[in-house]
Design brief:
Layout (H helix, E strand, L loop, with lengths): L18 H9 L3 E3 L2 E6 L8 E9 L2 E13 L2 E10 L3 H4 L2 E9 L2 E7 L2 E2 L4 H6 L4 E4 H7 E2 L2 E10 H10 L1
Parallel strand pairs: 1-3, 5-8
Antiparallel strand pairs: 2-11, 3-4, 4-5, 5-9, 6-7, 6-11, 10-11
């Protein structure tokens, strides 16, 4: 498979098992560990297009958060955030992710099943199958040009067992 890092034009190709080492070594993408993390995207004022990435490691799997600022309509940049499992579509169906923005007595949540990294992140964003917020809404949640995104991953078995308890 080709390199999936949207930050660079990279000619690398390799197997799914070596995507994480490639992203870490060649593109300096950090890994955060745990089912619940907070990712701080800085410099939100950068002009579109811009991308922010983080690898989220939990439940024995790696997920790639892609936060993209781009213009869908001329002069109107938007932010798009999605979580991709570095694995197969079948594996991705075993998880749910939640992105949460909290600030100034406001809360915005997006919950979905991650997509497989084998699917194109560009098509996920183009189809709007992700958290989409305009720059004015992003400013409500930002602090000095930084956006803190709470990320939570759940395994499908956890969801089923918690629903059964209700």
């Amino acid at each position: 498979m080709p390199c999936l890092c949207p930050l660079f034009s990279c000619q690398w190709e390799g197997h799914l098992e070596v995507v994480v080492p490639h992203l870490r070594q060649m593109h300096r993408v950090d890994i955060l560990h745990g089912a619940d993390i907070v990712f701080l995207a800085t410099d939100m004022h950068l002009p579109a297009p811009a991308d922010w990435l983080i690898i989220h490691s939990c439940f024995g799997h790696h997920f790639l958060l892609v936060l993209r600022k781009q213009e869908r309509h001329a002069g109107h940049p938007q932010f798009f955030a999605t979580m991709m499992l570095i694995g197969t579509p079948t594996q991705a169906d075993s998880f749910t992710y939640r992105l949460e923005l909290n600030r100034n007595h406001r809360c915005l949540r997006w919950e979905a099943t991650p997509r497989s990294i084998l699917e194109c992140v560009d098509s996920v964003i183009t189809n709007g199958d992700c958290l989409v917020i305009g720059t004015s809404l992003a400013q409500h949640f930002s602090d000095n040009g930084s956006l803190a995104i709470g990320i939570a991953i759940s395994a499908a078995t956890e969801i089923c067992s918690s629903e059964a308890e209700m």
